[in-house]
Amino acid sequence: MSLIEVSKANDGTDAKVSKKTHLADKRFGRGFVTVIKNAGKPNEEVIMRNGENLLVNAGIAYFHKLCYASPSATTYGATDVIALSTTSSTVSATTTWDNEITTAGLARNVGSSTSHNTSANATTLVKTFTATGTITAARSGLFNTTTKDATGEEYSHIKNFDSSVTLEDDDTLQVTWVLTLG
After folding, report:
1. Which of 16, 32, 72, 91 could form a disulfide with 50 if both were Cys (CB 3.0 to 4.6 A apart)?
2. SS3 57
């Protein structure tokens, strides 16, 4: 079932009411543009009202860079720092990060390989950790800084492993995040 009702007011504003069972369009970066010549003046002219914009490939790449590919580990903003935790409890939208591993060669660090594929709308972050002792890891997260508990620290993603993994001295653990926007 679908119903769309549009009401136009005398002051030039529009109201659109929609009742749909699903959203047909799930593009990333959707928005609208209104252009008015001489806005608020007696000779006001609406050139375009609520014209749908187009997020071009260069814009998609830029958003990926802002979100996932900072130019250096000290730049806040991008969440391209991979961290590990011993916690294996269920992850939800309200999950907080805890029990971070900061020893045995498994301290958080910038993904050593960061690449963006425009046609797939995906960014890949890869980090290979080398253990310098025995420790168990159960989850990974993405952060915007290599310093735990730093002012301005933010995290954006958390994922539990399918099963915990125990690492011993000189074992490696490669973590790969593939992220899309939209």
Report:
1. 32
2. helix
